[in-house]
Every structure is written in structure tokens, then in C-alpha cells.
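User:
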Amino acid sequence: MNLSGIRKEGTITLILLYLPDYINILNQKKMNTHIKLKSFLATFFLLLSFGINAQTMLSEKEGTSPTASDYYLPFRVGNYIKLYGWNRNTKYSYVKTDKINGVTYFLEQGEEWNDQFSGIFRNMWLREDEEGNIVIGAYGTKNDGDINSAVILPTPSKYFPNSYLTVNSYATYSNQDEVGTDSVISTTATAGAYTNCIQVRSTNKYISSGAIRLIEDNYYAYNIGLVMQKRIFPASQVHTNYIVEYVANSPTGINNLRLVDNAFNFKVYTEQDAIVVANANYGDKISVYTPLGTLLQTMIATNNETRIIVPGNQIYLIKIADKVFKVAL
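Assistant: Predicted structure:
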């Protein structure tokens, strides 16, 4: 892979490796132009840099600030998003987990089909990091989803970062033939029935001529993920893929979990080496989970303040009755 001539911008430099085109697994006679020209990010990932030209987001330490992971499909095997448009179905799903250097990653598999063709077009191993970014640890070179044949990245790279919560943030990426830019157009966009979505515009150009090959907008809804794709250019491919079905259960098993803020009598916050639950009702059950849904502790509220001692530099889900808080210590 040749990285010469790459222009790096912004404050955070990232590297993602080139992903081979999975479309060669499909029947060539039945292959469709849409698959050949799917969003550049479906088949190529050479992410070079992020730039932010906006105010800094609130720290996750506040306990109520959203992170990029809140706008991505929750990590739980069996969760999926299915879209339909331009006479085809597109599905992104978590099919299993694997360990990479002792850390759990979820295999996100992308597939597309209609009456004339079907096939898997990508395999990526993703997880949420300590700050709430979605990071990639490996990608598949075959369509078998086998971690043993996947390419393991030397270090996890940000795939859907917290900078996407800020309008005008961007990412650039390229391969030998094309260069692309993902720009955050809005964080309050409407996509069908979904409001306050993150709208990310992907623009891909040929390096040799500078001509635009593709422009596509992707819309991400809170606690669901990708809910709409809108192809803008070229004119012959203008279409919209709408979400038609999804399962977005939280790691704790709460269906379509909505992480709440402190608009309740009780509050959850961090203080030095502990998570503090204040003003919970007497007898309320308090449960502490990892972001992957592993139960760590359970206790019953017996006074006005409950201190929970847990390791630092981690993200936790705190469930109180039927409400869930997301905090970082």
C-alpha cells in the first residue's frame, strides 16, 4: 500500500488499512452496478485524519454526554439493521464475537441481495473504546467471517469517532485510485421518521482527474445506528435506502435502550474512584454492567447515596429500576 502523496489534516491522525473488494465473491453475470459502486467505505478503508473546526464536546466524565457509540448499532450479537431501496436489501448485523489480543470485538457483516444476486460485501471486527468511539481491530479478506484469516490491525483504529458529534468535523481516506472525504453535515438531521440524526456526507474523487465518482449521505439515529442512505451523485444512481427493520437491543438486554440524563429524582455521576448514585428510592435495584452487557455488581439502594467502587479508565452502564445511565470513570 502506497501512502505517498497523502495530505494529512486536523488534530487526530489515524490509519486504517485498505480493504479488498468483496464483490468478487458475487456471480459476475448477476452483479449489479449498485454493488460495484457502493459507498467507498463499504470496500475501502484508508482513514488518514480527522479535523475538528468546532467547540470541544463535553467530557464523557460528565456522565450524560453522548458518544459516537450512542449513534451506532448497539453491540450485541443478533442486532441488525436492514434497509431497502433501489430494488435490493442491505443488512448490517453482528453475527459473533472474537478476541483480538484478549479484547472482545463484534463481527459486523454486511450483505446485499435481491432476486438476481446475493453476497457478503464486508466483514469488520468492531468494538467501543473507553471514550465511546467505534474502533476497528480487524477486517476480513474472505467472506467466511473467520478471525484466523482476517487481517489484524497493529493497533485499533477509529472507524466512527466522537468527532462525528460535531458539525464540520471530517475524515479523509484514499487508495491508489481514489480519495474520499466524510464530512458531518448535521447532527440534527431528519431521516424519514427519525430526527436529530448525524448526517455524514461521503464524497469520493478520482485522484488522477479530480472528477467526482460518488456522493452519498448516511444518517445515524440515536441508539439505533444507520437508518437511511441517500445517493446524490451520479445522477444515474440517485436513490434512497430506508430502514425497514432492525433489532437494536442494548448489551444489558433492554430493548431499544434509551440512555437517560439526570432529569429524574436520582442522579448518577463519578467522583474520584467511584460511581455515585444519589437520591435513588429505597429498595431500588442498582446494577453495574460493562458496555458489552456483562453484569459486574448488583446492590439495593438503602440510603440517599450509594458509592460503587470500580476500576478506573472504563465505561459502565448503571441500571436503576428501568432507567440506564452511561458513565465513564
